[in-house]
Amino acid sequence: MAQGVIHLRFTREPRAGDLIRGDIRIPEGPPPRAAVLVVHGFKGFKDWGFFPWVAEALARAGYAVVSFNFSRNGVGAEPDRFTELDRFAANTLSLEQEELQGLVAEALDGDLLPGGRLLRLGLLGHSRGGGQAILAAAAEPRVGALVTWASVSHFDRWTEETKAEWRADGRVWVLNQRTGEDMPVDVTLLEDFEAGREHLDLPAMAARIRAPWLILHGSEDMTVWPGEAQNLARANATARMQTIQGAGHTFGATHPFAGPTLQLEQAMDVTVAHLHRHLEP
């Protein structure tokens, strides 16, 4: 286990007016030859709840760790507040995937992390970020390991009634239960999904993944039904699924973070074991 962690920051401008803000954590000592890229989900951000703890734990386990905010996730210069709701409204699944694939390529080609080109890269995605990690792992055969926590198994999460209202009004509102804030989502997200169904088909993309894949899900997840983990496992016969008993969608973690729960520590222990087995930091 590494004794100390160096914390760096980076930005990327994937397109004019959009900015990815990210963190890099590196264990002290020789540059690691393996990295893990951590992907947040819908209404998530790199500084939410357990993400900094997860990144620190992975760095102490010997990995370079990249965590970041998608450019349109709604969090700007203030690291833990949604201050860019117009950008949040204009986000799409395809834009997120474009940004994630760009960071994956940068990491593998040696343009993102100090120390040059990596030998191995793993992805860890939570919730909708799990779905994005699945797409990225299917697209990039150089990804050496995949872990998904409480991942969605499909992106089509709206009723037909909601879709009709969405098209009519051009925008729907989703509640941020933590803050009580209604957050806007423009119809461009729905249009992007419908235009790209083939490329955003998670079971179909899951079947293409060749990287060793660990699927973790809480037995008490009320946000993403635990059966979705089973759907993903059925789509890829080589994936390994494990249920964290008693865990909800965030494995008991809250924001602000109050420390790791037993379920979160269990998820991390299983994750590190999987990464060690296939990435060898």
How many separate domains? 1
Main sheet: strands, sense, barrel: 8 strands, mixed
The termini sit apart by 11 Å
User: Which structural class is indicated by helix and strand composition?
Assistant: alpha/beta
Q: Mean pLDDT, rounded to whole units?
A: 96
CATH fold-level assignment: Rossmann fold
> CATH architecture, please?
3-Layer(aba) Sandwich
Outline type: globular
Find the CATH superfamily: Alpha/Beta hydrolase fold, catalytic domain
Beta content comes to 15-25%
Percent helix: 25-40%
Q: Work out the number of β strands.
A: 10
Over all CA atoms, what is the radius of gyration? 18 Å
| Helix count from the secondary structure assignment | 9
User: Strand sequence of the main sheet, in spatial order?
Assistant: 1-2-4-3-5-6-9-10
CATH class: Alpha Beta
Detailed description of the structure:
The protein is globular. It is of the alpha/beta class. It has one domain: Alpha/Beta hydrolase fold, catalytic domain (Rossmann fold). A hairpin with a 4-residue loop joins β7 and β8 (181-186). It has helices at residues 51-60, 85-89, 93-109, 128-139, 160-169, 187-195, 202-206, 227-235, 262-279, and strands spanning 5-12, 20-27, 34-39, 64-69, 120-126, 145-149, 171-176, 181-186, 213-218, 240-244. The strands form 2 sheets. The protein has an 8-stranded mixed β-sheet, with helices on both faces. A two-stranded antiparallel sheet has the order 7-8. It contains 9 helices and 10 strands. α3 packs across α4.
